[in-house]
């Protein structure tokens, strides 16, 4: 487009700028400049009008229907791969809006916009997305179905990778420069690196001479493990993960029993509303490990500034949980760094998709898996909506991939019938007596072999056969009692088999499996060191 006429399309973006934030304006300007007019000029050099001939419009639409990327083939040569552009209609919608906006503005300011009014080259039929929405939902569901079965492989591999990197780094630290590192079968030696930073440990492969930064490898493996665990246990968004701070960990103490309930405060992100999440024992273990690592030898977590890629602003200094040392500075993790952590962790697993390519996990995949598994395990959809911070229940139901639609509809119908039959007084603010009754529920959770995690006002599905219940959290101090229960069950099973009471044998074996599971839980708990999180503190000297 000629220079004297180029100002008006720029004016279009300036006209829209007051009503858009930075991200939205960027989403409009990039397709108009890159996918629309740049391609038009490549197909028709010298064009200086928005009026596109039919042949040129068809060629442009065909061109943007596919996207090309360059990859390295098995022989080391560059190979160009073309694939369908899944959001092609979204780009067409933005270009159509460009044409229609100018036509609309021309009615109000003809002197400014009328010279640019031309027929839009994109019809309504070309941007219809009814089928595309169904296809996109099917793709997302299939993506979610493929990933839960391999999630344990990813978590186990990330944990082993973290432990192996930490052990290798510890062994290298105890090795003098130039000597072979123990337990590496002579494959690695401590590198002599006089110019390297003092806190970095380098190793050298004896076969190839390639140097490896063991400090970086251990850090990368740890943070990949931490990110995967926090994402899968909370279902939070990736920007919410990166905004977690030491102050996000809070607690609520029950006034009657003094029992402490840990909570995780999730900062506002997409919906501009914060929410509280109950911290499970597994999540508490991960958070305590992160905090212990960040504290190091000091008693405080360093304050770091982070950059908001959506708002294009720098956030104030905060004790972020996801931060790392780069040189002598403490820096916050970025979305790009988070994706890189996941890619490297997945590469270590060797998992592939049905097409044979490396399986890809995005941070949002963990959120979809979290919602799907929660609803499949009986969590009401409207409760999942609150936990995830969705404004609409339809959004939450759109995340589920395996839960039968009939069950969701039946649950919604049940809620409607219950609200129609129950008095409206039940949907009011609870009284002090009702609140005390709710708190009293937590006092009755204590049983002989642990604590019951049953929800308030819900019946006991095992009729108080606690050893069978998955909600029971066994007390390590009651291990002896559990062993007596297990031994008694073994004796009763032997007696029932001897007497031919086959019906009783089946029930006793179910109880035996529950008792052995509780003992295994106690064994796993005893292997974890207790970490005192303490209250968050900051010091002015920690600001970088």
From TrEMBL:
Coiled coil feature spans: 479-525
PROSITE patterns membership: TYR_RECOMBINASE
SUPFAM superfamilies per UniProt: DNA breaking-rejoining enzymes (SSF56349)
Keywords: Coiled coil, DNA recombination
Every Tyr recombinase domain range: 187-412
Pfam name, any one: Phage_integrase
Top-level taxon: Bacteria
Record's keyword annotation contains Coiled coil: yes
Record has Coiled coil as a keyword: yes
InterPro entries linked to this entry: DNA_brk_join_enz (IPR011010), Integrase-like_cat_sf (IPR013762), Integrase_catalytic (IPR002104), Tyrosine_recombinase_XerCD (IPR050090)
PANTHER family noted in UniProt: PHAGE INTEGRASE-RELATED (PTHR30349), PROPHAGE INTEGRASE INTD-RELATED (PTHR30349:SF64)
Protein name: Site-specific integrase
Natural source organism: Streptomyces zhihengii
């Amino acid at each position: 487009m000629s220079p004297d006429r180029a100002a008006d399309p720029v004016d279009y973006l300036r006209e829209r700028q007051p009503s858009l934030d930075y991200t939205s304006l960027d989403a409009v300007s990039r397709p108009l400049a890159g996918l629309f007019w740049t391609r038009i000029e490549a197909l028709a050099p010298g064009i200086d009008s928005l009026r596109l001939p039919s042949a040129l419009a068809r060629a442009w639409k065909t061109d943007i229907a596919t996207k090309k990327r360059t990859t390295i083939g098995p022989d080391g040569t560059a190979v160009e791969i073309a694939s369908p552009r899944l959001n092609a209609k979204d780009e067409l919608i933005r270009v159509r809006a460009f044409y229609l906006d100018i036509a609309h503005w021309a009615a109000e300011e003809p002197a400014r916009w009328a010279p640019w009014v031309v027929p839009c080259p994109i019809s309504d039929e070309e941007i219809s997305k009814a089928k595309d929405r169904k296809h996109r939902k099917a793709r997302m569901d299939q993506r979610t179905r493929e990933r839960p079965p391999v999630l344990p492989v990813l978590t186990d591999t990330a944990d082993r990778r973290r432990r192996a990197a930490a052990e290798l780094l510890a062994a290298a630290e105890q090795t003098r420069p130039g000597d072979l590192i123990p337990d590496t079968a002579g494959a690695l030696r401590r590198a002599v690196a006089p110019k390297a930073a003092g806190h970095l440990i380098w190793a050298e492969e004896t076969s190839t001479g390639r140097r490896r930064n063991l400090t970086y490898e251990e850090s990368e493996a740890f943070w990949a493990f931490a990110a995967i665990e926090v994402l899968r246990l909370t279902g939070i968004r990736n920007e919410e993960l990166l905004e977690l701070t030491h102050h996000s960990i809070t607690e609520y103490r029950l006034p009657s029993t003094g029992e402490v309930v840990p909570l995780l405060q999730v900062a506002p992100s997409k919906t501009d509303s914060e929410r509280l999440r109950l911290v499970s024992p597994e999540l508490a273990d991960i958070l305590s490990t992160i905090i212990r690592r960040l504290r190091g030898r000091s008693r405080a977590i360093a304050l770091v500034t982070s950059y908001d890629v959506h708002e294009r602003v720098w956030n104030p200094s905060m004790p972020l949980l996801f931060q790392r040392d780069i040189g002598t500075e403490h820096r916050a993790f970025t979305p790009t760094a988070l994706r890189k952590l996941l890619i490297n962790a997945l590469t270590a697993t060797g998992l592939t998709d049905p097409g044979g390519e490396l399986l890809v996990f995005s941070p949002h995949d963990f959120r979809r898996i979290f919602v799907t598994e929660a609803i499949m395990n009986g969590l009401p959809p409207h409760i999942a909506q609150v936990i995830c911070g969705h404004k609409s229940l339809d959004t939450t139901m759109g995340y589920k991939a395996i839960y039968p639609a009939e069950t969701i509809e039946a649950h919604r119908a049940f809620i409607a019938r219950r609200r129609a039959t129950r008095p409206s007084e039940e949907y009011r603010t609870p009284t002090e007596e009702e609140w005390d009754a709710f708190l009293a529920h937590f006092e009755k959770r204590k049983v002989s072999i642990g604590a019951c995690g049953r929800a308030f006002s819900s019946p006991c599905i095992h009729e108080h056969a606690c050893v069978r219940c998955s909600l029971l959290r066994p007390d390590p101090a009651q291990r002896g009692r559990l062993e007596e229960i297990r031994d008694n069950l073994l004796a009763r099973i032997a007696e029932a088999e001897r007497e031919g009471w086959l019906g009783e044998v089946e029930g006793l074996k179910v109880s035996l499996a529950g008792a052995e599971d509780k003992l295994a839980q106690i064994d796993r708990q005893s292997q974890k060191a207790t970490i005192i999180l303490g209250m968050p503190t900051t010091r002015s000297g920690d600001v970088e």
